[in-house]
Amino acid sequence: MRRRAALALALAAAALLALAALIAVNPDSAGRSGCPRGVLILDTLSSTDPNPDMLARVAADLRSAGCRVTTLLGRNATVENILRYFPDADVILARVHSLRAHLQSGEVGTILVTAEPYSRYAHSYLQASGGAVEVRLNPSGAGVEGSYFGLTSSILAPRLRASGAAFVGCETGDGDDLASAVLSSGWWFVGVRGDVSVGYADALFESVAEGLVRGEDLCSAVDRFASLVGPDPNFGGVPSCLERP
Questions:
Q1: pLDDT tens, residue by residue, 35-65
Q2: For residues 31 and 37, what is the distance between their CA atoms, to the nearest angstrom?
């Protein structure tokens, strides 16, 4: 996730239009949308770019729609908690720092940055196996600087058993590692192609959550968001959505 000043008013207005447009769409089947068992909200951005009002609003709306909601926010978004809660989540909504990089296997994979500060002495097995790596945020010194644990797709993919997942962070839609894992048993996957600012990501995150609340076809909702809002005006990233045939 790239950090930048607040987006232009035009983007905010377009995001509101995207949310409003969701009302007009007919609900899809319960197997492909909605949250019949439970939603896990993962937010690793709270340590650097908090948005507590948005997250509280999303959680409240989901609970009002009858969803069982579990939240891993800020300092609770640790290596242990993420690996513990991923397998039992029916739907995952993730607001994350993320990137694509070469993994220990030599292949390029997705890394989700946790909110847990890095230590060479912690999670030694995961580090030795390539499941956990060190990620430095803002190495140029701009904003909040520090080293955090990142979890690679090699350790996350076997734990993705959700019916759908949205990983709203940079480059999560540029590869198929996370998407293939979700779609092997689930119905839909939302990611981001390229880099996006926090403001753009939050607008997309809230649009996906609103689609869940209304029982929408989420790929149609994401396509509508992309059509109304366009690419991120700062970095050019765009949302993507894949469905299992």
A1: 556 899 999 988 788 999 999 999 999 999 9
A2: 11
Strands (E), the chain: 39-43, 69-73, 91-95, 97-102, 108-117, 132-137, 146-152, 164-168, 188-193, 238-243
Q: Which residue range is the domain that position 187 belongs to?
A: 9-102+153-238
Beta strand extents in 63-107 (DSSP E only): 69-73, 91-95, 97-102
CA distances from 36 to 20, 27, 124, 145 (A): 23, 14, 37, 39
Counting the structural domains of the chain, the total is 1
Question: Does residue 179 belong to any structural domain of this protein?
Answer: yes
**pTM across the whole model:** 0.85
**Phi (first) and psi of residue 101, to 5 degrees:** -160, 165
CATH number of the domain that residue 177 is part of: 3.40.50
Which tens digits make up the pLDDT trace of 120-135? 999 999 999 999 999 9
